C-alpha cells in the first residue's frame, strides 16, 4: 500500500551525490516557477546567470540566479505535479544550497464565493497524491507550516487573501463530483497538483516552503468554469509578490 511507504528505519539505496557530486551552497532563497510565461519574463527583465542544471533522460532544467533589490534569488521552471515538483525542489537544494523556497501557481476554486478576488494561502493540504507518503507518516492532510507567515506578508501589503484547506491531486481529470463534494465537506476551498508532496519533502529535509495560490477555474457540482484559468496561470502580479516575499522570508530565523 502507498500508505506504507514512509520508511526511516533502513538505509537509502540512492543519494543525489551519485548524480551531482557533493552538496553545494551558492545562495539561500529560490522561487519555484510553474508558468513558462512568468519564467520567460524573469529572463527578459533581469540580468540572470546560470548556476545549476537538473538533469534527466528526457531533458534538462536550468537553475538561474537574479539579484532583486540586493538579494540573490534562484529560480527555475518546475515540472507540473507533486512527484516532479518535489524532486526538483530537493535537487535544487542540493546543487544551490537554497533552503527557503517560494512556490506560487494557479488552482481550481471549490468555493467561488469565498475565493473570488482573493489569493489563497493554504493551511493544510489533502494528500491525494503519492509522493508525500514517502516523506511523512500516512495521514489525510499535511500542515502547511508557513501559512501564517505568508498571510502576515499579504496583510502587511493590504492584499485580499483567504486561508484555508486545499486538495492536492495527481489527476485533475479524475476530479469527480463525489470527490469534489467530499473535499468541500471537509473544508477545502481549492484544488491544485503540487503542494502536499513539496511540503512533505521540505518538512523531511528541514527546508522552508512558502506557498500561495491564485484561483482560475472553478469546480462546482453543476459544472466547470474554465474562463479564468489562463490568467491565473500566468498573472505577473504573482511574480512581483514572490520577489517581494523573497526579501523578507527568513528574517526571523
Describe it for me?
This protein has 253 residues and is an alpha/beta fold. Helices cover 32% and strands 33% of the residues. The protein has nine helices and eleven strands. It has helices spanning 17-20, 36-45, 82-96, 112-115, 147-156, 177-185, 195-204, 229-234, 236-248, and strands at 29-33, 49-56, 59-68, 71-77, 100-109, 119-128, 141-143, 161-169, 188-192, 208-220, 223-225. A five-stranded mixed barrel has the order 5-9-8-6-10, surrounded by four helices. A hairpin with a 2-residue loop joins strand 3 and strand 4. The longest helix is centred in the middle third of the chain and has 15 residues, at 82-96. It is globular.
Short description:
The protein is of the alpha/beta class and about 250 residues long. The protein has helices spanning about 15-20, 35-45, 80-95, 110-115, 145-155, 175-185, 195-205, 230-235, 235-250, and strands spanning about 30-35, 50-55, 60-70, 70-75, 100-110, 120-130, 140-145, 160-170, 190, 210-220, 225. The chain has a 5-stranded mixed barrel with strand order 5-9-8-6-10, surrounded by 4 helices.
